[in-house]
Specification:
Elements lengths: L5 H17 L6 H11 L16 H16 L11 E8 L7 E6 L6 E4 L11 E9 L4 E10 L8 H20 L3 H9 L7 H9 L10 H17 L4 H18 L4 H18 L6 H15 L7 H28 L5 H25 L1 E3 L2 H25 L4 H26 L5 E3 L2 H18 L6 H25 L5 E5 L8 E4 L5 E4 L14 H8 L7 E3 L5 H4 L2 H7 L5 E3 L7 H12 L4 E3 L5 E4 L2 E7 L2 H6 L9 E6 L2 E5 L5 H10 L6 E3 L11 H7 L3 E4 L12 H9 L3 E4 H4 L2 E5 L5 E5 L3
Parallel strand pairs: 3-5, 10-11, 11-12, 12-13, 17-18, 18-19, 19-20
Antiparallel strand pairs: 1-2, 1-4, 2-3, 4-5, 6-7, 8-9, 8-21, 9-10, 14-15, 15-16, 16-17, 21-22
Helix pairs in contact: 1-3, 1-10, 4-5, 6-14, 7-8, 7-9, 8-9, 9-10, 10-11, 11-12, 12-13, 12-15, 13-14, 15-16, 19-20, 22-23
């Protein structure tokens, strides 16, 4: 890109300025950077620096635009379970029980869950209900939907929304159960799309085929161009008309980022050719980036936006060289379409790899070959689906006939994705730490390898070494992080429990394993992923406090993923099928199964874990599952943490009489239910910090308001996984501790 058009550097500088603010880097550091750059002698720069300092202007402009965007008046943040009345419009009818809802007053769209699928899209409505807190953002549970009388519903945007909604009705009539599939391919609507099938597409590396992207826009542009040319139009006129048709389509589906990017690029290329100039591909991509970021700086934080431009940049930078290398390697023995397809898929995959791993923490290992097979199927199904919808206005019977052929293609595509996605080896799970290591290692390697005195062979070897060292060194750095402290990690598993304990020497014990995962691959379970992110390679023990599914659901995945020294449980009768499956898995892995009785101690170097309950008398009496939960005391010098499982108040009152005050951390019992956290316990141990493992907007109402009030009345700091994500407490032998959490 040394000879790239100036607009490329202009767009990059502006986008970096936006990202500077969006990532939370203090804005006041930017003037210091500008002063530093301006003060360094030009001969010290490794690139031609005459005009280089001018790029500080778009950098500052981008930062200013992002600052203005984030400083604009926003709607006040809602509170969980808060009742409210909101006014706005559905962007699609909630056929599957939910749809995006755009509120008035410039508020961000919110997901609206409603039992009124007939709620019209694009019409002004007044909705009464309650705010709920989801995994990533708030959503609204609607109780009553009312039309706003005499509301103004005119305007091209809302006309397009209503028109798109009517098209969805036609799609349902033509495709039945496959309607969500066709709606995703043609109109960028994914409501009602089968969740398991979507996961299969993700694991197969085909998720991009479900979103409107440059691929879809390119297919539509080529189809329009071919139709217009066949009607007798000149190439120049047909190209411009096809561009207008593409923009009409992009407007109809609501201007998604990837489609807007592709339409802008097509427009810039068409304008260049219309003026008799060769199209500058990098200039067109950079211009599209500059336009979209300037219109909405917040786009920079979107995963879809990042993937769209990274994939396009990868195609421009590497598809050609990779294709030439493949031609040279195979010397005509491989068909040209295969060479081009492999080169394009590999280029886009490599460019988007860090972004995919960062946002989704998994990378498909079969994305390139899967795309080579699935791409032509989609290229046939997409125009067929569009044609069937258009023909339905003229002849329903003919449209149904055409839809049958499209449905067959979609069935083949879905079956293939399911077959491939069900294999446990098709994805590689990653952590954000490994992504940072990979990117930093690659950047350093690239910088060093560009030195003119390094040969081609040495350059390749250097890049490979830096990449491998970066990936391998990260787990080592993670494993030594926090040495000298004991860590108590409350893992965000939703409505369940999972707590990992680390000794100063890096040994680990897991207490409970959360609910079953939503994916078949054990590596995808949140407990397994959290442990691998901490560099865990084995567990000294896994303690299951009791046999409820929200505590043992992930135990099988843990046993499949790590060597486990022993499994402990309270030794109470539990005939639940899931518990029996965990027993059988432990037996297959030759993992000892032991009883955790009062007085049992586990030594992890300088960390001691003592079982306080259940007692033998409780076990003999056959107490109820929750009442017989394993209760643990974790000690590291003067640092103490009490983990109460789901034990009830009578157990807590008995323990309060035995334990002394000044216990630093209390793991609140039973997810904050009022069956636990007795006032006598709080007054007896006087904790500084209370940790609550609880699911967002759970149906049990946890944590109970009474429990939160008891904790507040005693000035105890409360942290919750539904709001704070996974919570890490680093305890020191002198009793002090530090707290951090992973957010959402």
């Amino acid at each position: 890109m040394g000879h790239a058009p100036p607009v490329v550097r202009l767009a990059l500088a502006f986008t970096v300025g936006v990202a500077w603010v969006m990532t939370g880097v203090p804005v006041w550091l930017l003037p210091l950077l500008a002063a530093f750059v301006a003060g360094v002698p030009t001969r010290a720069w490794p690139w031609p620096s005459g005009p280089s300092r001018l790029w500080l202007l778009p950098l500052c402009a981008g930062a200013f635009a992002a600052w203005v965007s984030t400083s604009e008046q926003r709607c006040p943040a809602p509170e969980a379970d808060q009742r409210a009345v909101v006014r706005g419009r559905f962007l699609a009818s909630p056929r599957a029980g939910s749809a995006p809802f755009e509120r008035t007053g410039g508020c961000e769209p919110v997901t609206m869950v409603v039992d009124a699928p007939e709620a019209p899209a694009g019409r002004m409505l007044e909705v009464e209900g309650r705010w709920r807190e989801g995994s990533w953002s708030f959503w609204f549970q609607a109780d009553d939907v009312r039309a706003v009388p005499r509301a103004e519903d005119a305007g091209p945007r809302w006309m397009a929304v209503r028109w798109r909604d009517r098209l969805l009705d036609r799609i349902e009539g033509l495709y039945g159960a496959r309607a969500p599939f066709v709606a995703a391919l043609t109109l960028a609507r994914r409501e009602g799309f089968d969740r398991d099938l979507r996961e299969d597409f993700t694991r197969s590396g085909l998720a991009h085929l479900l979103a409107i992207s440059g691929f879809h826009v390119g297919v539509i542009a080529a189809l329009l161009f071919a139709v217009l040319r066949s009607s007798g139009l000149r190439a120049r006129t047909a190209r411009l008309a096809a561009g207008l048709g593409v923009w009409a389509y992009v407007a109809l589906i609501g201007f998604p980022d990837a489609a807007s990017r592709a339409a802008l690029i097509l427009t810039f290329v068409a304008l260049s050719r219309a003026r008799g100039r060769p199209p500058a591909r990098w200039g067109a991509l950079a211009s599209a980036l500059l336009v979209l970021v300037a219109l909405d700086p917040g786009r920079v934080a979107s995963a879809g936006f990042q993937l769209s431009f990274a994939g396009s940049a990868g195609l421009l930078a590497w598809a050609g060289p990779l294709a030439r290398a493949l031609r040279k390697r195979f010397q005509g023995r491989v068909p040209e379409p295969v060479v081009v397809g492999v080169a394009a898929s590999a280029a886009a995959t490599l460019a988007t790899l860090p972004i995919v791993a960062w946002h989704f923490e998994q990378v498909s290992l079969v994305g390139i070959p899967a795309t080579l097979v699935a791409g032509p199927i989609v290229a046939l199904a997409l125009p067929g689906a569009i044609a069937s919808i258009a023909i339905d206005f003229l002849s329903h019977d003919l449209a149904v006939f055409l839809a049958g052929g499209v449905s067959t293609l979609l069935d083949v595509l879905a079956s293939g994705a399911t077959e491939v996605g069900s294999r446990p080896w098709v994805t590689l799970w990653a952590t954000r730490g490994s992504v940072v290591a990979m990117v930093v290692g690659g950047a350093v390697a690239t910088h060093v390898a560009r030195r003119p005195w390094i040969g081609v062979g040495a350059r390749r070897a250097l890049m490979s070494i830096y990449f491998v060292v970066g990936v391998l060194a990260w787990p080592v750095l993670v494993s030594i992080q926090g040495r000298g402290t004991a860590e108590l990690l409350t893992i965000d598993v939703g409505q369940g429990d999972a707590t990992a304990i680390r000794s100063p020497g890096g040994r680990w014990v897991l207490v409970d394993a959360g609910r079953p995962a939503e994916v078949a691959d054990p590596r995808g379970h949140p407990v397994v992923r959290a442990l691998r992110a901490r560099g865990v390679r084995s567990l000294d023990a896994m303690i299951l406090t009791h046999a409820d599914l929200d505590h043992i659901g992930g135990a099988e995945a843990v046993l499949q993923s790590f060597p486990v020294g022993a499994v402990y449980d309270p030794g109470l009768a539990a005939g639940k099928e899931e518990f029996v499956e965990v027993l059988e898995m432990a037996a297959r892995r030759d993992v000892p199964w032991l009883v955790a009785r009062a007085g049992t101690r586990l030594e992890l170097g300088r960390v001691e874990i003592e079982v306080l309950s259940p007692t033998d008398s409780m076990r003999a009496a056959g107490v109820e599952t929750n009442e017989g939960s394993v209760v643990l005391m974790v000690r590291h010098g003067a640092f103490d943490a009490l983990l109460t499982g789901d034990a009830y108040k009578p157990v807590e009152r008995r323990l309060a009489a035995l334990l002394g005050p000044d216990i630093e951390v209390l793991k609140v019992g039973h997810h904050g239910s009022d069956t636990s956290t007795d006032p006598a316990l709080l007054d007896g141990i006087r904790p500084e910090l209370a940790l609550i493992s609880v699911g967002r907007s759970n149906r049990y109402g946890h944590p109970a308001p009474e429990v939160l009030e008891r904790l507040r009345a005693r000035a105890i700091d409360v942290r919750r996984t539904d709001r704070d994500g996974s919570i890490s407490v680093l305890g020191r032998p002198d009793g002090r501790f530090t707290l951090s959490h992973g957010g959402r």
